[in-house]
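Need Neoverrucotoxin subunit beta's 3D structure for a figure. Predict it.
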Amino acid sequence: MVVSGDGIILPALGQDVQLGMLYNVRTSELFAGISLWDNAVVNSEQTKDESKVQNAEFFYSTSIEDSRKKSALDVEGSLALDLKIIQATGSAKYLSDTKSSTHEARLDASCTVTRWTRRIPQETLSSMKYHRTLDNPRFTHFVAEVVEGGSATISLVRSASSEEEAKEIAGDLKATLIGVPVNGSANLEYKDVSDANREKVKISYSGAIAENVSTWEDARRVANDMPTMLAKQTNTLYYKLLPVDLLDSNANRLIRSLDSGIVNRTAVALKTGITARLRLDELLQHQVLRNWFPKIKGQICGLRESFLEGESDFTEAARRLLPELRDGNTDYSTKISELRKAISLFEQRVRIAEQFADLKQNELEVLHSTVASMLGQGFQNHLGGLKPESLTTVSAPRVLLSFGGGQINRSRHLLEKKMQSTELCDDSDEDDSDNEEKEKSEEEWFESSQTVNSVRAACAELISLRPSAPEEVIFGVASVDKAYRPGEEKLVTTRIGDIILGYNDRFTIVTGMLPKAPTAPTLTIEEQGIALSWETDQSGDLEPAIPTTSYVVRYRPIPNPEKDGVLPRVTANETFIELELNPTESSVIPRKNGTGDSLFDDCDYQVMLSVKTIIGLSGWSIPAVVRTPRWPSVASRMLDFHERNHQTLSNPNRKGTKPWDMDKEAGNRTLFLGHTTIVDRNCSDPRFPDTVAVRIVDVAAEFEASIPAADLADKNNTIVTVFTGPSGHGQSTQINAFVSYLLGGDFEDFARIMMIDDRGTSQTSSQFVTCYRIRPFSPLFRGKTMLIVDAPGFGDSKGYQRDTFVMAAMSDLFSTVSHVNAIFFTCRAMESRTTFLTPVYTYVSQLFAKDVQDYLGTIYTFADSGKPAAHDTLQKLGWPVQNGEISVNNSAFTATLDVTDINHVRDMWLFSTRGQFQIMDTLLKTTPVPTDSSADVMRDRVDLEQKCSLTEHKIFKTATKAWNLIENLDCLADRIGNAPDAEVSITEDRVVTQDLPEGKGSTRCLHCNITCHEICPYSNDEDIRYCETIKDEKCVVCHCHWTEHCNMRYMIRTKRVTRTMVPEDMIKAWSDKTNELETSLLSAIDAYLKLQQELRDELLDLSQLTKNLMTKALLHDPSAFINYIDRLIHTARAYSFPPAKLVQFATAKNTLLLLQKVKEQGSAAAVEPEALLDILGSVRTEMHRRMQLEMHQRVREEKVPCSLYDTLYERLPPSIKDKAPAPLGEKGMSTQGELYPANLKAVVLLVKTVLKDGGVVAALAVKG
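Structure prediction for Neoverrucotoxin subunit beta:
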């Protein structure tokens, strides 16, 4: 309320206020229709300038309080608006807005255009027509002045989560307006608000202009048009009140001014009350209360209803008392005391509401952080008010974290009673000890750190227990108020955070009773096992709350650096073996590893114990460790077995069995193990008929025969290891050393154990691929059967044919063995010759498909402590040395052992054993890879080589035929060039015609076919009767009737002509001879074309096979063998090898050349045969065409220029065209063109070029 002198200036707030209206300042009430003057007098029409405005302004506010201030509403006016004493409508209705959330961002963009001010003239004031109206005491003031114009406001409102966010969003909204109009024609400019804020902004419009504003586009449009539209409005914006005693001193009214303190206090109380109510509303929308904790939601609803009642009481009291305080006729002291008490009571209720909101906010945050984490991990939700019966009707156990009991599930909160109280609290009168007792009794559960920690600890326990629980056990959260304690039959009240077990149709409190890690078991060694014993938790007759279903023992071997020595048999991360035992048992003796084999001897074992209950597994006990005793090795047992049974084992007459053999040479005792042949497989390659390619044998089949061997196809229980490499590089010795390690051979044993007998020169085992099957004799095998593949070495003295057989044998191996675990390339450590290793590397790499790339390893034999020289060479060649390299020196395992330096032998034994340990460690870590792809590669490779061999013969055959053809073509060209051309002169009469002069004719008899009159003056047939040769209608020359004659424009005469010609017999003789030669050539060309077509198809087939091989094979490089074969040929010639051997090497080289060309050129390898097909096919077509000509035509045709070669030249592939003879050139103005024979000569040169330069045929069939 703005007071100006004795006047009061008030905003119209959208009301239609007119001059002369009466007003009650006590109640802020306008009386429409009541005035002291006639309306026509005080509101008479006035002449106004419509084009002018008195004032125009555009302002914005970021709060409702700021908007009210800018609309001339003071504290009293705002309070009256909040108490609904006055109303804001029309363009001011936005001033009645209240906050819809605790934190709110707001922007009010207002435009006000003031057009003019109207007043009651002085002369009108003194001439009141309705003077008696002043007798009514309600009328205290009248409207003496009005300000008219137009006003409108666009409001942008959005809720926020905090005051900081509200300020940020308000600034964003404020930034939407960057232009402020200063008159009616100004425009607004906007800055885009962020998409996140745009979505949730509520847009509203208040104004005298009828507009629908619901979107940002609408708001911008209306805001842009507001200044112009408002300039035409004449609504009341403000009005001025004057007291009625100015008109009549007897109409004096006693009006009090309100105390600003009491007004401000009332306004603040109302505002804080709104904030408290909004907080309670927001609590009800908390996500925890949407489906969970209905009783907590009921507490909030109950207190909110009580607060709303108190808020309503306070509003009514303030709305009644404030007007009474303005009235000077009331008891001020009584009214002000009553108002103050109402304010104090409401302030107390606001404090209670704020306290309650703080408590519940904390409670809901604790509940959300706990419950949400559990539900997010799959715990079931039973917080929605389900009945307890529904939780126990299922047979499976349910483990629940309970949020029940009186502290959380009471129907009414303690503060609700305080909220309903009408008494003012005075805490200063109460005793401090009473306060402490009261606060302790009213402490919320979540205010106790001990309770909250207990809830979180229980939550963590359940989360850790759940992964080990059986699948049927259900974990969840629920509100359980009553449950049983173990061993009791009376229901008791639960506490928040209790763990409840729903089982056997009852709830049991099991807080603190979840399965815990037991004490470590007691360990002792008993025979070949570990004896464990432990104490059970069951005692007396008391049944535990959570029944135990079994005990679980887990154990594994662990390394012990102090006792294991330099060759530990286990790693630090071995897999645990678990045993599940009956709950009544309290001891067990584990005797087996997870593979079914006995425990490792002389090895530490780690043992732990766990308790398994109906709801899950406890933690593991503290590990206990015990060491197993050392047992006799497999090698020593084999030596004893042979000693007892040597007569039987050494019998050489047992069919299909290689006997055991003890070499008792002094200082070099070696037991060579016998083996029994399981299967022999002959080579499938037709080049090696009736030849054993693969032999599978069972090593030491008589020893401990009760130990079963896994099936060869069992990839989980059979480890297949392939040893391959160059011949003579210690591969057999390496296999012997590896087998000795597997069997536990020791340097101090009575004799060495070996499997491959490589004494002397007879090495039958290396003639084919031998697969040695060794059953799992010791724990070192991990229950796996070992299949050791000894592949014959490459590059031995038997030459290329031998290497070819090894390739074929390996192909049969892959068709026999379904998988491999590792392939080891075995070569001397100091072998660095690229010329030697290249073909061997190529042979080995070409054995496999690409899927074995990661399974290729390297073993360097004859190694020392330095870096192997072979490493760099193999790496340069492309062998994957990065997969793993192992250096060994197996000199302690050679057939002949030098024992003069026993310490050196012992060192070499240890050096070798270290390497064998690495090999076994690698094998145990690998996963099997199928051999299907490698088998396909080898089949394709053998197929490719066989087809190459056939194609090679066909190339020679077609090349020979091609050379014969071109020689015959050359002869044909010479023959055609000798066509008969000897001519003789002949004179004869020839009939000729002679043209007559213009207008003349000749008379010719059609019957006699003669000219009767050479030059006749009559040229018309109808005038022939007048010709001088016609007498009496008949010709005097021929005597025919004149009608038999006609008139001709020329005359016919006989002329003597002399000409030259070839005699007929010469032409015929030449034609017969030429046709005979061409007929023979056509047959030869047809046969050649058929053969060449077959060659083309075969080359394309080879190209496709090569493409497939390069896609699947680890390596395909025929060129790597060409230099190798050249060296073999050079050596064979130098040492005068038999001619058959040289032919064999030459054939191999030709095959490799063909393979290399096909690899390099792909499908382009068939370009040369295709070109020959096209060339000779075109020659045949042309030859056949000429043969069909009549002999004279043929003679003439041979003298006409021919384009056969030039046409062929244009169709040649670029690779051949570049080397072909130049085109002959066509007939032109200055050239005659070449004849058919010259074209045949050019074709001959072209075919020679194709056969000699650049193609597959040229590579093999070049002819000097």
